[in-house]
Design goal:
Strand order of the largest sheet: 1-2-3-4-9-10-11-16
Radius of gyration: 20 Å
Helix content: 40-55%
Number of helices: 13
Strand content: 15-25%
Order of helices and strands: EHEHEHEHHEEEEEHEHEEHHEEHEHEHH
Largest sheet: 8 strands, parallel, barrel
Length: 372
């Protein structure tokens, strides 16, 4: 039986400062303004609901990238990747509220506590993995207080101490009648799940197997229930499409070959953020073989050590839409999809994959209503 009671589905893409992926090495300046504009507009034209702007310790500032992308689009929403701890939560709350106002209520924030000591230490953060999630817990508490307080307040916590904290600017969006910027949250460790249960509006998984996704969403639901909350779920994939299944698998093998070739050229070793539970879970899926479930393909994830969302769904648009529906039946209402050919694939997804998936979801929701 489906655990999904929503009739809608959200599609999120991802934009970066320049053309880059496992099969496209970065070239030129880290920010290509024309590319960002074309990339954001391509997602809007393709029917995406939202785009993720990622964070990396050596990359462009995601907040400013969102501000620019919002200025050259009209309808599409954004998911700003943010690592708690480098900007004070009182300041971050004002920044996010301001960006939500200027963008016309199009902001969501994905909070990533960090799965790699090396990444964190580039910006001077020396907390360990579990300490980072404890800090995120307090960080999100302060954010919500700043957004909703109608008068100055004091805060005394393990990581933050404030006197007369207040913000004149509040988010344009609301939740339960109170100012609020949607909270997307990632992290599959024992330290992460309780924080997700308290704060996440949308909990994000990487592209795991159906069994793994079922187990993890069940755990997060249980945590959220302790606080009288419900959580939506997002799963991330790298769809590889073609007119025939045979052609799609051939394309996948070409992507893997080029990924391997470039990693040799660039001198990369296989490996990933060792403290990331998400990476470990992707590698656990890959241990079952390169093809899992109907058409989950794990070969690239295996090659790069489970780093980032690197599992694919391979097939025709109809076949991949059908595979996405299996996750919808688990309660997943958001799909983050991005391609190995980033801009071109975003446009391609809009031709058939997104509308076909929406159609399948609408049919499934209608049948559920009839049963009810």
């Amino acid at each position: 039986m489906s655990q999904n009671t929503q009739s809608d589905v959200e599609f999120i893409g991802m934009i970066q400062g320049q053309k880059v992926s496992e099969i496209h090495p970065a070239k030129g300046p880290a920010i290509d303004r024309d590319y960002v504009r074309a990339f954001a507009q391509a997602h809007e034209n393709a029917g995406f609901d939202r785009v993720l702007v990622p964070h990396h310790s050596t990359g462009p500032d995601a907040t400013l990238t969102v501000a620019y992308a919002a200025s050259v689009t009209e309808r599409i929403h954004f998911m700003l990747a943010h690592r708690p701890g480098f900007v004070a939560p009182t300041l971050a709350a004002r920044q996010f509220a301001s960006l939500d106002q200027f963008s016309g209520g199009r902001l969501g924030v994905h909070y990533i506590s960090g799965g790699s000591d090396e990444e964190q230490r580039r910006d001077g953060d020396w907390l360990d993995h579990d300490q980072r999630y404890a800090r995120t817990d307090e960080y999100l508490d302060v954010l919500h207080k700043v957004w909703t307080a109608d008068k100055p307040f004091d805060h005394e916590g393990a990581h933050y101490h404030y006197q007369n904290a207040f913000s004149e600017v509040k988010p344009l969006q609301t939740r339960n009648g109170k100012p609020h910027v949607p909270v997307y949250f990632g992290g599959a460790s024992e330290a992460a799940i309780p924080v997700a249960g308290k704060y996440a509006d949308v909990y994000a998984l990487w592209g795991e197997s159906l069994d793994q996704a079922r187990e993890l969403t069940t755990r997060v639901r249980a945590e959220a229930a302790k606080h009288g909350r419900s959580v939506r779920f997002s799963v991330s994939f790298r769809p590889i499409l073609a007119e025939t299944e045979e052609a799609a698998w051939a394309r996948a093998e070409n992507i893997l070959a080029e990924t391997k070739r470039l990693r040799v050229v660039q001198g990369y070793n296989r490996g990933g953020p060792q403290q990331s539970e998400g990476a470990k879970r992707l590698l656990a899926a890959a241990d079952k073989g390169p093809r899992v479930d109907k058409r989950l393909w794990t070969a690239v994830a295996q090659e790069i050590g489970g780093r980032s969302n690197s599992t694919a769904l391979v097939g025709t648009p109809e076949q991949v839409a059908d595979a996405l529906l299996d996750y919808y039946d688990l309660g997943v209402t958001t799909f983050l999809i991005r391609g190995f050919d980033p801009l071109e694939d975003a446009t391609d997804y809009g031709r058939e994959l997104i509308p076909r998936t929406r159609e399948l979801v609408a049919q499934r929701a209608q049948s559920q209503r009839k049963v009810a």
